[in-house]
Amino acid sequence: MERVRRASHAGSWYTDNAQNLEEQLDGWLRDARLTKSFAVRGVIAPHAGYSYSGRCAAYAFGNIDPANISRVFLLGPSHHYYTTKCALTRTTLYKTPIGDLPIDSDVINELYATGKFEWMDINIDEAEHSMEMHLPYIAKVFKGYPVTIVPILVGALNSVNEAMYGQLLAKYIDNPKNFFSISSDFCHWGSRFNYQYNDMKYGAIYKSIEALDRMGMDIIETGDAEVFTQYLQQFENTICGRHPISVFLHMLKNSLKNISINFMFYEQSSQCKSMRDSSVSYASAVAKSDN
């Protein structure tokens, strides 16, 4: 029996008009002027409303050559539901305004059989936006290519479990037919986010935020999950996808392939100049294999 996850944020976080959505995505992908590559095995991309982060996300998804990929794993943080584990969808289909994406039930069941995952109820699934905001780009990039998806909601993991899930998932990135889409925004700055770190040596607040984010991005590029954890502990940067990113870093560490991460684009929703301001940062990266 088909169990469908609606495109629950279409019409609010992004347009539910298929033609307008296609045109938007086309425009951002065209403007990014990227060369598609078989070597790209994963991306890190933001998940805010498209008016904020749609352009940035194109610098991740525009690198994908869909020809040899048959399965996309989605790792997104949980914003509304608290769990110390990772959760799997009970659905068989994720809808988008520009094409539906079937769930790879065989892989979902294989993961659940490890005893390390829990099920995600449909109300939790549809309330969460972190993976949904990647779906239209995936539907766009893989249009005309048969692809299934494996959505994994990543809970509030401790460092031991981040390593465990990374080891468990590493075998999947070793298969070149699999692709990983990691969902994360970067610094959420302002009193409404309860985070106002400011290093005065950079002058304007927004420059301090960028320096903080770029420090984290540089660490992610090294692939060192332990140093990334230390950075988060020291600065408490409000990177909402820190757990999916950490799992991904542990995957790459345990992979038989040599896969490196490079950030392609960075921007902020606005430039904070006073303590009354607020902003969210967005960054896009690609993970490329050299073998």
Automatic annotation (TrEMBL):
<dbReference type="Pfam" id="PF01875">
    <property type="entry name" value="Memo"/>
</dbReference>
<comment type="similarity">
    <text>Belongs to the MEMO1 family.</text>
</comment>
<dbReference type="InterPro" id="IPR002737">
    <property type="entry name" value="MEMO1_fam"/>
</dbReference>
<protein>
    <submittedName>
        <fullName>Protein MEMO1</fullName>
    </submittedName>
</protein>
